[in-house]
Specification:
Helices cover 44% and strands 15% of the residues. By secondary structure, it is an alpha+beta fold. Among the domains are: 49 residues; 220 residues, Cytochrome Bc1 Complex, Chain A, domain 1 (2-Layer Sandwich). Helix 15 runs antiparallel to helix 16.
Amino acid sequence: MIHPAASHRVQSRLRQLCVSLLLTAILFVGSISPSQANSLASLEPYLEQLRGQVTEFQLDNGMTFIVLERHEAPVVSFVTYANVGGVDEPEGKTGVAHFLEHLAFKGTPEIGSTDYAKEAVLLDQLDGIFDQIKAAEQSGNQAKATQLKTEFEKVQTEANQYVRQNELGQVIEREGGVGLNAATSADSTTYFYSLPSNKLELWMSLESERFLNPVFREFHEEKNVILEERRMRLENDPVSQLFEALKSEAFEAHPYGQPLIGKTEDIAGLTRQDVQTFFDAYYGPENLICAVVGDVDPAEVQSLAQTYFGREGWSSAKRSRDKIQKEPIQRGEKAVELTRQTQPWYMEAYHIPGSGDPKAIPYSILGDILSSGRTSRLYQTLVESQQVALGAQGFTGYPGDKYPNLMVFYALVAPGHSIDEVQASLHEQLKRLKKTPVTEAELARVKTRLKASVLRSLTSNQGMGQVLAEYKAKTGQWQTLFRDLEAIGNLTPRDIQKAAQTAFRSDNRTVGRLLSADPSEASQIETAPTETPAQTPTPKSAPTISAPPAPPPAPEPVRAL
C-alpha cells in the first residue's frame, strides 16, 4: 500500500530524522529554555538521558527489537520495519514490494475468512486459471482467453463469499487502536499503528501471526487498485512522469532507477506465487526490526516477543539476498526531455552519498540553504528577483537514501520565460556556492531554523519508532543518529562549499525538461504544483502511492492503507 509522504517544506530524510530526534529528546526529558535550545551542544545531557531509556535486544532467530520507554500517556506505538523495498525487486517483477504491502492487511487463515479451508481451494483455482489466461493470450487464442475469464470471474465471486473484509483493521479499531497503516519506499517497508498500553500482548499476537501465516487473498482485486493508482499518480501526471524519466536516466545500474510502484506490464503479470516468493526471501526474522515506543516495560516486551516472535515457525535460517548492483560513477551530463500538455518545467539532479556515509551530512544543510522556504537562495533569485520561475525547490534523498542517491532541483517556468533562463539562473546559484563559502551568519540561520522546527513541531511515539528502526537498518546501530546530530552542529562554511564543489559538476548532472505540447495552451493549464495529500493514513480499502520525500508534485515514498 502506498501513501503520499509529501511535505510542503523541502527537507531531506536526514533532516527529518534529526528534527524528530531533537524534538523527542526535548519532550521526553522536559522543557528547556530558548537560550539552551540555541546550541545543539546544549542538548547533549538530554540526549544522554534519552540514550538511557532505549533498550535493544535480539531474539535467537535474528529479529531485533528496540524499546523506548515514554510513560507520559498510557499508549504505545509499534513500528515493524522490513528492511526490503523497491531496490530488492527482481527484474520483471517491479512493484512486488508495494503489492505485498497491500496484501499484508488481508489477514491470516483465522482472520479474514469464514472458512479458510474452502477459501484456500478456490484461491488455488484462481491461480491456475490466471496462468491459463496468460498462456492463451500469449499464444493469440483470444476465444480461449475470453472463456477462461468468464470462469475466473465465477470462481472469484465464490471465493469472495468467504472473505471478511478488513477484519484485521476492525479488530485493532475495536481494541482502541489507531493509525493502522504502512508505507513502501525504495529502501524499506514499514507497518505501524498504536494501541492502549494494556494491549501490548494483542499487538504481539496479531503482528507475529500476520507475518508468520499471511494469506494473500483478494489478490486480483488489489492488482486493479494498484494499476489504478499508477494511472492516477504517474500516467496522468506529467511532472511525475518527468521525475520517473529523470531517475531512470540518472541510474543506469542501481535499482533506484526502477519505478517504485512498478511497470504496468510487471504489475499486470504478477501472481500470488511471485508475492509469496518475495515474502519468503525478505520477510525472515533477521530482516525485521520492531520498534516499541510508549508506556511499556522493556522486560515485559522481551518476554512477550520471545513467546510470539520466537516461537516455532519463525525460522532462524538466513535467507540469501540478492546483491544490490553498485551505480558506476557518472562520467558526463545526461538529459531527458518530455513533451506534454502542461506548462514547461525544468529539473536537474546530482549524485550524492547515501545516509550511511558521514560525507552525506553537509548535503542536507546545502539543500536547505538553496531551497527551503521563501528565504532560500533559489526562491529569492529565480522567483522573487529574476521572476523566471513561479516556484523553485529542491530536496535530497531521491528516490531513497540508503544508497548513494540524488539531490534534485526543479522549477516551474514563469509565463514569458524559457527553460534556458531557468537553467542559467539555477547554475548561477550553484556556482556561487562553489566559489564563495556561505557566511557564518547564513549557516547559523539554517541551524536556527532547524532548531525552530523542533520547537514548533510535535512528534509522536510512532515517529520516534520509525527513526530508531530506520537508523538501525541503514547504519547498523540506532546510536548513529547521535553522531549525525553532533556532525550537523559542527558543520562549517567550508564543509558546505566542499560539498557543493563535489556534487555540482556538469559530469555529475542529469537534466530533465518538460516541454509544453502547445505553447498557446500553456496559460490555460495549471500554473502551480498540484497539492498532494498530507501524510495522513488513507482507508485500508483504498491504498495510495507516494514517492520520495519531496514537495508536490514530485513523487514520494509509497504508502499503504
